[in-house]
UniProtKB/TrEMBL annotation:
Name listed for the protein in its UniProt record: Cytidine deaminase
MF terms (GO), sorted A to Z: catalytic activity
Species per Swiss-Prot/TrEMBL record: Microbispora oryzae
Taxonomic superkingdom: Bacteria
């Protein structure tokens, strides 16, 4: 895609890429809440708990008092966002969800 991204949207993609790289995870995610605070995370894969990177980032935002999201980003090799990722963004007010490749190039905008 050749759409120019707002610098704040590019920032959450960069944060998601960093979370993915730092943990050697298959995906990274970041969200920006209604006050402009950002949260970045990688997925969790434990025997008793499995969460996508976006679910972790949203949980971090909610546990810090966020009521809604302005934007969310997932960096992954996947061609489409997971249904549970779309659902968690919808739970938080239908923010734009950006899906980006590991190199940061934008694959799509959702919701």
């Amino acid at each position: 895609m050749t759409h120019a991204l707002d610098p704040e949207d590019q920032k959450i993609i960069t944060l998601a890429r960093s979370a993915r790289a730092r943990n050697g995870s298959p995906e990274g995610a970041a969200v920006r809440d209604e006050t402009g605070r950002t949260y970045a995370a990688a997925g969790v894969a434990l025997p008793s708990l499995e969460l996508t990177a976006l679910q972790v980032a949203v949980a971090m935002a909610v546990s810090s008092g966020a009521a809604s999201l302005e934007a969310a980003a997932v960096v992954s090799d996947a061609d489409d966002p997971a249904e549970k990722d779309l659902a968690v963004v919808e739970d938080m007010g239908n923010a734009t969800l950006f899906l980006a490749a590991p190199d940061g190039s934008l694959k799509g905008r959702y919701i």
